[in-house]
Design goal:
It is built from 13 helices and 13 strands. The chain has 421 residues and is α/β, with parallel strands linked by helices. Bound molecules: nicotinamide-adenine-dinucleotide.
Length: 421
């Protein structure tokens, strides 16, 4: 087994899926290990003239179904173990959506808030210099992740163009529109989750006006709240790192969005339209129909899973429900739409960006929305049917769905000639 506890915990999902599908043992053995993880030390010049070094990684977990795809995270707690676990998830997420990609991930161990803009640019460019032999439009395609954004992707795309001597926008996604970014990338993660809930709501017995609680009011959280509110659903609670607000009659979404635009916590809206401040931890136990974790990992755990009142959990965050909490929720009849399906709208529109870059032909927003909806509904429906026919959770069904595609590709390649570095 890999010597990586984080990856070990992710592999529990693989073992679970393998019980429900007849796949060759070679396939499982191959998927237990990353194909390659490269570690470098980036050395950059700081504004005061000194030099500083930062650890950085790029993992290509599995490339059987296509070039590896996955974001680059800038975080002080980044580690090789975390990068490999996230790359494993990306492998399954891309397979769930039937995107022609394998899974990858990258990271730099840095707190980007401590760097000036010029230092951040030098760090981003040095990442691309260090990994330019691994990264490539047909080999490994990064994207933004925690604390990286379109500006950083633009710098990296520019650096890559200088290295290879020609514009090569398909090397990275999540770029600014001016450099070949796609329309519709900003809200893609939330929009994918929204299409999924809308499509399955009748099957889930949620066809009326729903009450929604959103944990984490950042990119994904703000967009999902807006999309659901536009359809007439009621947002009854939201939280951010500064606390949470609740109103059984429905929160004033405009006031919440305005607070975030002003750089404030959602708690700054306390008192408006009956907004009542509650503890951030209490958000998961608010009386609602749909709970949307859109903040961090492991937020629903053994300590609070039994208090969840929602009938549906839509995982916009990656890994917000621990495996133990999953069991508690399942016993209580709470349906969890798992991260590798529910938040896959982001990587799907990244795929659209890559396709447009390769074609040199750019689509209208409406076309992007239609294509995203088609894929979310198609894969969501298939996983729903699988979960019903096998009497398994949506999470296990999503892993089975992805594993069958991965197994087919691995077997088609032949399992003899792989090497793990
Ligand atoms: P973000 O940084 O824009 O927002 C995160 C939000 O969570 C912030 O409002 C922050 O204040 C809040 N938060 C932090 N700690 C909290 C706590 N203890 N309690 C409540 N709220 C807390 O990030 P994002 O891009 O919206 O991503 C959120 C999650 O969705 C992450 O898990 C990310 O990996 C996942 N995700 C995002 C995308 C995307 O395209 N943005 C794609 C796939 C998955």
């Amino acid at each position: 087994m890999p010597e990586n506890n984080l990856l070990d915990s992710a592999l529990v999902r693989l073992d679970d899926a393998a019980k429900h599908i007849n796949v060759d043992a070679d396939v499982i053995e191959k998927l237990k290990f990353p194909r390659e993880t490269t570690k470098v030390r980036l050395m950059i010049r700081m504004d005061d003239g000194s030099r500083k070094s930062f650890l950085a990684w790029r993992c290509r977990y599995d490339d059987t179904r296509g070039p590896t795809k996955g974001g680059i995270r800038f975080h002080p707690d980044a580690s090789a173990e975390e990068v490999e676990m996230l790359a494993f998830w990306m492998t399954f997420k891309c397979a769930v959506m039937n995107l022609p990609y394998g899974g990858g991930k990258g990271a730099v161990q840095v707190d980007p808030r401590t760097l000036s803009k010029a230092e951040l640019e030098r760090l981003s460019r040095s990442y691309m210099q260090a990994f330019s032999r691994i990264i490539g439009p047909d080999r490994d395609i990064p994207a933004p992740d925690v604390y990286t954004n379109s500006m950083i992707m633009g710098w990296m795309a520019d650096e890559y163009a200088q290295i290879v001597g020609q514009a090569s926008p398909a090397v990275i996604t999540g770029k600014p529109i001016a450099l070949g970014g796609s329309l519709g990338r900003g809200d893609a993660t939330a929009r994918g989750g929204y299409y999924l809930v809308r499509h399955l709501s009748k099957d889930l017995g949620l066809d009326g006006r729903m009450r929604i609680a959103v944990q984490g009011f950042g990119n994904a959280g703000q967009y999902i709240a807006s999309l659901l509110a536009d359809d007439g659903h009621k947002i009854v609670a939201v939280s951010d790192s500064g606390g949470a607000v609740h109103s059984a009659n429905g929160l004033d979404l405009e006031a919440l969005l305005a607070a975030k635009r002003d750089g404030l916590s959602v708690t700054a809206t306390a008192g408006k339209n009956g907004h009542e401040v509650i503890k951030a931890d209490d958000l998961v136990s608010v009386d609602c129909d749909v709970l949307v974790p859109a903040a961090l990992e492991n937020m629903i755990h053994t300590g609070n899973a039994a208090s969840v009142k929602a009938r549906l959990v839509l995982e916009l965050a990656n890994g917000p429900v621990t495996p133990e909490a999953d069991e508690i929720l399942a016993k209580r009849g709470v349906v969890v739409l798992p991260d590798i399906l529910a938040n896959a709208g982001g990587v799907t529109v990244s795929y659209f960006e890559w396709v447009q870059n390769k074609q040199g032909y750019y689509w209208e927003l409406e076309e992007i929305h239609t294509k995203l909806r088609t894929i979310m509904e198609r894969e969501g429906r298939a996983i729903w049917e699988l979960s019903l026919s096998r009497r398994i959770s949506m999470r296990t069904a999503a892993y089975v769905h992805a594993l069958s595609r991965l197994a087919e590709a691995i077997e088609a390649h032949g399992t003899q000639n792989y090497f793990i570095s």
